[in-house]
Amino acid sequence: MGKYDVIVVGGGPAGAVAARECARWGLETVLLEKEFLPRPKICAGAISAAAMNLLDVPIPPEIIEARCSVFHGFYGARQITIELEQDFLVLVSRDIFDFWLVSLAQASGAEVKQGEKVIAVDPGAGGVTVRTSGRVYTARVVIGADGVYSTVARAVRKPFFKKDLAFCVCSEIGTVERDVPWQEGVEVYYGLTPVGYRWIFPKRNRVSTGLGVWPSCTKTVRAAFLDFLQEKGLVVDRRIRGGHIPLGGISRPAVNDGIILAGDAAGFADPFTGEGIRYAIVSGRLAAAAAVSLLSRSVPPNRQNLGVYERNCYHSFGADLKAALFISRLFQYFPRVLLGMFFNSREPFAESLQILQGHTDYRQLYRWLLWHTPGLLRRSI
Ligand SMILES: Cc1cc2nc3c(=O)[nH]c(=O)nc-3n(C[C@H](O)[C@H](O)[C@H](O)COP(=O)(O)OP(=O)(O)OC[C@H]3O[C@@H](n4cnc5c(N)ncnc54)[C@H](O)[C@@H]3O)c2cc1C
Questions:
Q1: Same domain for 291 and 355
Q2: Angle between helices 277-296 and 303-313 (to 10 degrees)
Q3: 147 CA distance to ligand 1 centroid (A)?
Q4: Residue 178 pLDDT > 80
Q5: Ligand 1 atom 10 nearest Cα
Q6: What are the strands of the beta sheet with 66-68, ordered from one edge?
Q7: Same-domain status, 34 and 123
Q8: 198 SS3 class
Q9: Closest by alpha carbon to 12, among 270, 279, 308, 202?
Q10: What domain range includes position 190?
Q11: Which residue among 53, 199, 212, 231 sits deepest, i.e. has the most Cβ atoms within 10 Å of its Cβ?
């Protein structure tokens, strides 16, 4: 039986960052990952400037496939283009990016065990017991960073309601020639029912394209995506894959005795854009900080004492995800009015891109919208 201070379950951004921080602070840490790394990951691979700023090590240039400072938004016949002076996101391949983050954790002293699927987690008086397909481990704290279909979360909260999940399909496609080069920037197409968008993001020799909707509506999504590809003259040459994104901004428990959830496992993703990597990184770091703070002072990591993590998450980004959820609901209930407003002026999109750059947040966007709504409505009418 392996005994550790901290067991981190999952080698995505939340788990890799949490394991690195715990190991750096001298805790005996093991990261359990069910796959062998680098492993494929269903994701567009867009990392916002705000997410990059959370990393204290710059992403190596060879991992970055494209940098974007130009946004093209489309809604029916309407189009808006915004060029910023600085990049608001970069594009990566998630298998390589996540592998890099895990190697940083390993270099800081975290042990990494691959091909170890966690099947059960039991909090107990003497610590938390973690069972994998072949072994049993114990730790004083377990950080569950095992994604949207988390096993660790079963020991903390009820499963996500279907209505609180978005569903996305995506694929990477070898590009065809066209007048406007694909590397020009990101293209986002609005006007879907239920609320959602389609995207084309540039990559090194390919494009990442996909479609996401909320609430999760798996039946029609694939057909709508194929229609979109046909319209854009893109031909699928790799598998179309799909996955869920939990809507952030909803209050859910994220801790139990000896257990902390981070990233998608905790439901921390942006309900407006679907961005999850940023919140995985920040919550992974906060989870490690909570574990280090309690264990280094020999304070029992029970549910009550770990409440500090929930409060820190709320202050750091949770209150803002609530504002994002409110804005998303406005789009869900009044799609034409909101899209009409967004496409009648460059300003709302320019404000939204500032959020990806980390210069502003959804609470400010909400205040901005309230203040400007009469003018924007007049223009859109
Ligand atoms: C189609 C799609 C496109 C997306 N595009 C973007 C985007 O462009 N930008 C963005 O910011 N976000 C995007 N997201 C969201 C983003 O992928 C997630 O929010 C992010 O990966 C969450 O990170 P995480 O570390 O919490 O979990 P994950 O990245 O999901 O990592 C979880 C890890 O845990 C492992 N694991 C799972 N179960 C177990 C187990 N039982 N035992 C051991 N290991 C386990 C998994 O193998 C995985 O490595 C997208 C999501 C989808 C579905």
A1: no
A2: 140
A3: 5
A4: no
A5: 275
A6: 46-48, 89-91, 66-68
A7: yes
A8: strand
A9: 279
A10: 162-246
A11: 212
- Which pair of tokens denotes residue 287? 């989870």
Distance between Cα 77 and ligand 1 center (Å):
34
- How far is the C-alpha of 65 from the C-alpha of 92, rounded, in Å? 5
pLDDT per position as a tens digit, 318-347: 999 999 999 999 998 888 888 988 998 888
CB 138 near ligand 1, within 6 Å: no
pLDDT single digits (tens) 97-131:
999 999 999 999 999 999 999 999 999 878 999 99
CATH number for the domain harbouring residue 170: 3.30.9.10
Q: Which ligand 1 atom lies nearest to the CA of residue 264?
A: 26
- Do 309 and 357 fall within a single domain? no
Would 81 be classed as within a structural domain? Answer: no
Query: Does ligand 1 have an atom closer than 6 angstroms to the CB of 34?
Result: yes
Q: Are residues 355 and 262 in the same domain?
A: no
Nearest of 144, 150, 57 to residue 107 by alpha carbon: 57
End-to-end CA distance of the chain: 68
